[in-house]
């Protein structure tokens, strides 16, 4: 049944993941047995409409789904260290290991930077938190303090856990080291900020989030996410809340940082035009299931799943006549205790009897592509090329 | 605020300036809130009244000669019973036992301050702890604690406090205790709601994402962003507590002859029909001004801290 061919070169493997939410109306199967992998340094775009489970998938990787009402019903989320090859499963690892991984090896940027920064802390303090959490020893070393023989209090200050009293007490007893420690923290923060092209990082550092513009806040978020040089960056629609003019610059920035640092990116979006520009591979989700995946350009050029085709056809183009925007008929089915069927069958122009009684699984196609469609499964016995399915009739021409 | 010296490289001097600047930004923000509060003239009136009361309480031993052994009992001038205001030595008159009304009001302000501060601070701490535990733990713990809160909220404040104080026996300390038992529930409920709201924000998720611990997130991200309504409620309660405390001592739950404003209203009541209006009136005015002042300031704070009006 598992058609995912495990390659040797992977960073993150999500295997057979199911996430359920227990609600008064029943069990919502937000994510239903999905499998995918992210390779080092690549950009994988996870595409789907609102409510298809892509954000839940992203949060699951961080183990951020609240339990209850959420529940990881099945599967594993494996993260491999590119240097040592050690693998941890985020879902079963002890909590302190999960926390050590978050922010250090996997980072995340959110949709709305205005809401993702604590309004009552300065930017500098918030960034210092990240360094304190994961790089306290580095800060101590930079301040000229031996981390193994650090004076009482300096460890807590470096990890940003010390309160006003402890900080000032240490400053009185060890004025030189206290100043050096502050300077080390400031340096780390300023470096992180200036790396994202923020002008005048010293000023930004002592600002509160409400004093910055949206684009600036997203840069701060990116600086925070990349502070510890993570292996994987999860970008949950990072530009949706921004002006169109700033969107491109933020995406260029992410792209540029990826080139320089070799970070893999899991890019969650519903904007297919951005996928074409930035993604290496593409995975399409519908109603909690993965329906199609493969190299981004090929999937966009010749989508195989009826849903992907509909999605691409729905993008308005310059040539689209006025008043003729395409849409996929019907709406996403409710996922409360759903029957075993293809969730797209009710909206699909080519659904057959079998689509309402069976669950489709991803099947492999040539060129590392996969599609989850029962009509393909039927056809696979006679070969896809000969299957001349009605799908072909709806083949969409997509620009370069 | 001048910008940090950009010309000097990352040297030691630059760092120090930066520190000072960061703290000056924090102070600038506090000044901003204060300016917002002070924009409303009624709030300023409230602040002035509170300042006068504080001054009065602080300087009580200087304004009047403290009665020995207990300064919270008016000195008895048996030769001047029921004298009206304006008589030599008794600016606001005396009551039917020769107690000086002005003395009572001055020393009563100390009792009011003691009452309101003790009750508000202790209930603020208890309420915050209970509400935080409920909100952070959730599930059964939350359910249990909130049902306890519901039981407390189901009984009217005054009646509940009255019942407790009556059981404990008449003394000022028992009034404080009774009010503390009654007032914490409101804070628990408010802070729980606020924490649940803040917990769902992206910045708390973002704090989890960078690997912060739950306690750190509570301390740095959740609590500071949840306390605002609590501050407003506590300010309003500084007045309310004195109001209810006065009601309790009015019906005789404080020691007899105490210079508590409610007790003074009660003591002067019998004389009102005989034309001796001054005892109850001045003590009543003191209660009124106290409650009014804190309500004005509380309202002003609410307006200034309300996020919807921020950045006007």
What would you say about this model in short?
Helix content of chain A is 34%, strand content 20%. Chain A has 400 residues and is an alpha/beta fold.
Low-confidence stretches of chain A: 1-5, 382-388, 390-400
CATH topology-level name of the largest domain in chain A? Rossmann fold
CATH architecture of chain B: Orthogonal Bundle
- Rough shape of chain B? elongated
CATH class of chain B: Mainly Alpha
Total discrete domains of chain A = 3
Q: Secondary-structure element order of chain B, as H and E?
A: HHHHHHHHHHHH
- Model regions low in confidence, pLDDT < 50 over at least 5 residues of chain B: 1-18
The total strand number of chain B stands at 0
Question: What is the name of the CATH superfamily of the largest domain in chain A?
Answer: P-loop containing nucleotide triphosphate hydrolases
Strand adjacency order, main sheet of chain A: 6-7-8-3-9-10-12-11
According to CATH, the homologous superfamily of chain B is MetI-like
Helix share, percent of chain B: over 70%
String of helices and strands of chain A = EEEHEEHEHHHHHHHEHEHEEHHEEHH
Mean pLDDT of chain B: 84
Sheet having the most strands of chain A: 8 strands, mixed
Overall structural class of chain B, as computed from helix and strand content, comes to mainly alpha
User: Hey, roughly how much beta strand do the residues of chain B contain?
Assistant: under 5%
> Care to count the β-strands of chain A?
12
Report the CATH architecture of the largest domain in chain A: 3-Layer(aba) Sandwich
Task: Summarize the structure in words.
The complex is a heterodimer of chains A (400) and B (312). Chain A is α/β, with parallel strands linked by helices and 400 residues long. Chain A has three domains: 12-114 and 227-283, P-loop containing nucleotide triphosphate hydrolases (Rossmann fold, 3-Layer(aba) Sandwich); 123-205, no CATH class; 303-393, no CATH class. Helices cover 34% and strands 20% of the residues of chain A. Chain A is built from 15 helices and twelve strands. Chain A has an eight-stranded mixed sheet with strand order 6-7-8-3-9-10-12-11, sandwiched between helices. Chain A has a four-stranded antiparallel sheet with strand order 2-1-4-5. In chain A, helix 3 (123-134) packs across helix 7, helix 7 (175-195) packs across helix 9 and helix 9 runs parallel beside helix 10. Chain A starts with 11 loop residues before the first strand and ends in a 7-residue tail after the last helix. Chain B has 312 residues and is mainly α. In chain B, helix 2 (41-58) packs across helix 12 (278-305) and helix 4 packs parallel to helix 7. Chain A binds chain B through residues 59, 62, 64, 68, 99-104, 107-108, 110-112, 115-122, 124, 129-130, 133-134, 161, 179, 182-183, 186-187, 190, 200, 202-203, 205-208, 210, 221, 224-225, 227, and chain B through 3-4, 6, 10, 12, 15-16, 18-19, 21-22, 25-26, 29, 139, 201-203, 205-213, 216, 220-221, 224-225, 310-311.
């Amino acid at each position: 049944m598992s058609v995912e061919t495990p390659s040797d070169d992977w960073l993150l493997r999500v295997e057979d993941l199911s996430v359920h939410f227990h609600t008064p109306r029943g069990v919502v199967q937000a994510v239903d047995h999905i499998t995918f992998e992210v390779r080092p340094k690549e950009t994988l775009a996870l595409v789907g409409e609102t409510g298809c489970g892509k954000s839940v998938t992203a949060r699951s990787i961080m183990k951020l789904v609240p339990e209850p009402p959420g529940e990881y019903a099945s599967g594993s989320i494996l993260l491999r260290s590119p240097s040592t090859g050690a693998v941890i499963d985020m879902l079963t690892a002890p909590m302190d290991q999960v926390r050590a991984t978050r922010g250090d090896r996997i980072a995340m940027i959110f949709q709305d930077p205005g809401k993702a920064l604590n309004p009552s802390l300065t930017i500098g303090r918030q960034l210092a938190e990240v360094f304190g959490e994961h790089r306290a020893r580095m800060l101590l070393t930079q301040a000229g303090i031996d981390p193994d023989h650090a004076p009482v209090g300096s460890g807590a200050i470096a990890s940003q856990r010390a309160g006003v009293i402890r900080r000032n007490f240490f400053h009185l007893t060890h004025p030189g080291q206290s100043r050096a420690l502050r300077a080390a923290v400031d340096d780390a923060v300023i470096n992180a900020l200036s790396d994202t092209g923020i002008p005048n990082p010293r000023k930004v550092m002592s600002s509160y989030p409400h004093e910055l513009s949206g684009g600036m806040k997203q840069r701060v978020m990116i600086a925070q996410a990349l502070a510890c040089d993570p292996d994987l960056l999860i970008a949950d629609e990072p530009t949706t809340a921004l002006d169109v003019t700033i969107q491109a610059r933020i995406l260029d920035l992410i792209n540029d940082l990826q080139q320089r640092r070799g970070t893999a990116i899991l890019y969650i979006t519903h904007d297919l035009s951005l996928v074409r520009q930035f993604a290496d591979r593409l995975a399409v989700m519908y109603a909690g299931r993965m329906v199609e995946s493969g190299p981004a350009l090929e999937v966009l050029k010749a989508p195989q799943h009826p849903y992907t085709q509909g999605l691409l056809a729905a993008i308005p183009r310059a040539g689209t006549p006025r008043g003729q925007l395409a849409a996929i008929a019907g709406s996403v089915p409710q996922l409360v205790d759903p029957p075993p069927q293809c969730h797209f069958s009710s909206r699909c122009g080519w659904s057959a009897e079998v689509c309402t009684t069976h669950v489709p699984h991803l099947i492999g196609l040539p060129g590392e592509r996969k599609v989850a469609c029962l009509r393909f499964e039927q056809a696979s016995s006679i070969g896809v090329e000969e299957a001349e399915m009605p799908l072909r009739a709806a083949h969409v021409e997509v620009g370069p | 605020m001048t910008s940090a010296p950009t010309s000097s490289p990352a040297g030691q001097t630059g760092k120090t300036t930066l520190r000072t600047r960061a703290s000056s930004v924090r102070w600038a923000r506090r000044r901003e809130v204060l300016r917002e509060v002070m924009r409303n003239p009624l709030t300023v009136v409230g602040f002035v009244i509170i300042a006068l009361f504080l001054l009065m309480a602080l300087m009580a031993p200087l304004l009047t000669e403290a009665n020995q052994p207990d300064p919270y009992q008016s000195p008895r001038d048996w030769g001047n019973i029921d004298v009206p205001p304006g008589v030599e030595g008794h600016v606001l008159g005396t009551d039917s036992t020769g107690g000086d009304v002005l003395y009572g009001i001055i020393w009563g302000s100390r009792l009011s301050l003691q009452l309101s501060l003790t009750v508000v601070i202790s209930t603020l701490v208890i309420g915050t702890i209970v509400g935080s535990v409920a909100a952070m733990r959730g599930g059964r713990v939350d359910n249990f604690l909130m049902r306890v809160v519901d039981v407390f909220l189901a009984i009217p404040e005054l009646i509940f406090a009255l019942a407790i104080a009556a059981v404990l026996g008449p003394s000022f300390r028992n009034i404080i205790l009774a009010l503390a038992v009654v007032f914490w529930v409101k804070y628990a409920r408010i802070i729980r709601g606020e924490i649940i709201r803040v917990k769902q924000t992206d910045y708390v998720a973002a704090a989890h994402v960078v690997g912060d611990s739950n306690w750190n997130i509570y301390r740095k991200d959740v609590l500071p962003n949840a306390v605002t309504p609590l501050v407003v409620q506590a300010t309003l309660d500084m007045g309310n507590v004195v109001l209810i405390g006065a009601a309790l001592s009015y019906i005789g739950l404080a020691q007899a002859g105490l210079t508590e404003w409610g007790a003074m209203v009660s003591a002067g009541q019998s004389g009102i029909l005989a034309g001796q209006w001054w005892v109850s009136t001045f003590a009543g005015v003191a209660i009124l001004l106290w409650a009014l002042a804190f309500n004005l300031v509380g309202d002003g704070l609410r307006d200034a801290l309300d996020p919807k009006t921020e950045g006007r």
